[in-house]
Amino acid sequence: MRHFPAMKRLPFVVVLALTACSAAPPPVSTLAPAAPPPAAAVAIDAHPAVAADVPSPAATATAEAPESPSDDLPAPPDVAAPPADAAKTASGLATRVLAPGTGKDHPGPDDKVEVNYSGWTKSGRMFDSSVVRKESMKFGVAQVIPGWTEGLQLMVVGEKRRLWIPAELAYGDHPRGGAPAGALTFDVELLDIKPAAKPPLTPKDVKSPPKTAKKTRSGLAYRVLKKGPGKGPSPGPTTTVSVDYTGWTTDGKIFDSSVVRGEPISFGVNQVIKGWTEGLQLMKVGDSYRFWIPATLAYGVNPGRPGVPAGMLVFDVNLLRIEE
C-alpha cells in the first residue's frame, strides 16, 4: 500500500514564483510557482504564488516501500459503483452518509480540516489509508482533488461519508507519479474544522506604487510597512526563508495569502519569481514590506499557466525568519 493522500498542491504564490525563475516545473505556492504539484493520494492541489505546490501524503508515498497486504482494509461491497440510494451532485460526485456527525457547520473552501480516510480503486485495491497508518491528515479544503474539495463541504464534524469520485474529479485516467487512476472510492471521517482567517484588507495604494515608494533599477517598487529589530543579515539568494504574505492584483483582488491559510511558507530565495528574489534580499527578519512587482519580474502580461495572475502584482510580505 502506498501513501497517497488527497493533497496535491502548495501555496499559489510559491508555486508561481518558482516557475518564473527557472525552466524547472513550478514549486508549490501562489507567490511563485515553479513546478507542477506532486500527485497526492487523496487529492491536494497547489497554490500558484510563492514557490511550490503543497505536498500531499499521496504524492510522497511513491518513495515508500509497499506495505504488507495484511495491512489493507477490506474494500466496501459497493466499491465498484455507487448504490441506488447514493446522492449525486451535478459534477458527478456520488456520496452516502455512513454515520451522522455531531457538528452543525460545514467546512468552506478556505478552511482547514482534519480527517481520517481510506481509499480504494474500483477493483477493490486499497492504495492509501490514514486509518492503517494511525495518523490523521490535516490540510486545506481547496488543497485536494476536486472530488474531496466538494465532498468535504457536504460534511459536518463527526460524520463518516463514502465518496465515489469519478476520474475527472480525482487524478484522471493516466495520472503521473504513481497516483491511482480512474474512479476512486473513499471512506472519510471529518474530525475537526479550523475556520480560515479573515483576509487582510486591500491596500489603498494597490493600483500603483505611491510617490513615497522606493524603486530599484529592475523596476521593483517597495515600501517599508514595519521595521523589525534590524539585527542580523538580510537573506542571500541561496538561503531559505519563512514568510507570511498576501498577494493582490492591481484591481484589488486577493489571489493568494498564507495569512488566510494560517500557514507561513518556507522556500529558497532563488526559488521564486524575480521580484520576490530581489525584494527579500532588501529585508531583515521582522520586517514587513509592500512590493509592487512589474509583470516582467512576476508572471508576465499573458502567463501560460491557467490561473496565474497577470500583470503587475502587489505583495505584503513579513519576513519571519532565515532558516539557513
- With helices defined by DSSP (H or I, 4 residues minimum), what is the helix count? 6
| CATH class wording of the largest domain | Alpha Beta
Through-space gap between termini: 35 Å
Question: How much strand?
Answer: 25-35%
CATH architecture of the largest domain: Roll
How many whole angstroms does the radius of gyration measure? 21 Å
What is the chains' assembly state? single chain
Number of DSSP strand runs: 15
Number of structural units classed as domains: 2
Q: Which range best describes the helical content: under 10%, 10-25%, 25-40%, 40-55%, 55-70% or over 70%? A: 10-25%
Shape: elongated
- Global structural class: alpha+beta
What order do the SSEs take from the amino end to the carboxyl end, as H and E? Answer: HEHEEEEHEHEEEEEEHEHEE
Mean pLDDT: 82
The CATH topology of the largest domain turns out to be: Chitinase A, domain 3
Unreliable parts: 1-69
Description:
It is a single chain. The strands form 2 sheets. Strands 2, 3, 4, 5, 6, 7 and 8 form a 7-stranded antiparallel beta sheet that branches. Strands 9, 10, 11, 12, 13, 14 and 15 form a 7-stranded antiparallel beta sheet that branches. The protein folds into 2 domains: 67-194, Chitinase A, domain 3 (Roll), CATH 3.10.50.40; 214-322, Chitinase A, domain 3 (Roll). The protein is an alpha+beta fold. It is elongated, with a radius of gyration of 21 Å. It has 6 helices and 15 strands.
How are the SSEs placed, and which strands pair?
Elements: H1 12-21, E1 31-33, H2 57-61, E2 87-88, E3 94-99, E4 112-121, E5 126-129, H3 130-133, E6 137-140, H4 146-152, E7 160-165, E8 184-194, E9 214-215, E10 221-226, E11 240-249, E12 254-257, H5 258-261, E13 265-268, H6 274-280, E14 288-293, E15 313-322
